[in-house]
Amino acid sequence: MNIKNIISQLNFKWAGEYVIGIAQDYKTKRVLMCAFMNKKAVEKTLKTGYAHYWSTSRKKLWKKGEESGHVQKIIKIIPDCDDDTLLLMVKQKGAACHTNNKTCFYKKSII
Q: Rounded to two decimals, what is the model's pTM?
């Protein structure tokens, strides 16, 4: 796997420097969360096999679960048709959401 080639094929168009990362449970197909990924986050994810994201508020790279232990082991990464969103098929350990819910999408439907 040539990481530089993979990264060069992605379209980091969001705010000029990000792709969207959507984490989905590889078994249940349930959407767990989404977050921004810059080139460093994608590279670290590919190198380590664990999901890394870019915090736009803290302006730093973070490994999902680095504090809670609720890591996301990468099973597959699938780019979308525009190469600006990555579907991360993951094996989630513990809760995906910082609220300690299994998914960030736990609220009632708005329509």
A: 0.94
